[in-house]
Amino acid sequence: MTDPACIFCKIAAGEVPATFVHEGEQLLALRDVRPQAPVHLLVIPRAHVASLCEADRDHRDLLGEMLLLAAGLAREHGLATRGYRTVINTGNDGGQTVHHLHLHLLGGRALGWPPG
Ligand code: 5GP
Ligand code: ZN
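YS: structure for the whole thing
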């Protein structure tokens, strides 16, 4: 499923350019256009799922693969020793601005907590 108005669907369709670090059958990973850390990647499903609120048990494998891909990318980008953060923003209070499920992988500097 895709949403023609959705920027991440457009990226998945190759209609909007992106710097990919992974292109799999189900998942893509790309560099965030406004990085908040030296490494800031986004893991997104090719299929349009608006947010974690819309996920159900049918998305179990997809959600698991998103986390495992993030862990693999963290290793590849040299983040495994010092650590990193994985974030899924959901809805308005969660700070979600792109309404296509995505997981942020952030690392390469000490990240404050709690976030603002
Ligand atoms: P959210 O706030 O929804 O959790 O995160 C959306 C993220 O997508 C933001 O960090 C933003 O910088 C990033 N983003 C928005 N539009 C684009 C785009 O066209 N390309 C890329 N690579 N990242 C984008
Ligand atoms: Zn989408």
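YS: worth flagging: Helices lie at 7-12, 60-76.
IM: good catch. Also The radius of gyration is 14 Å.
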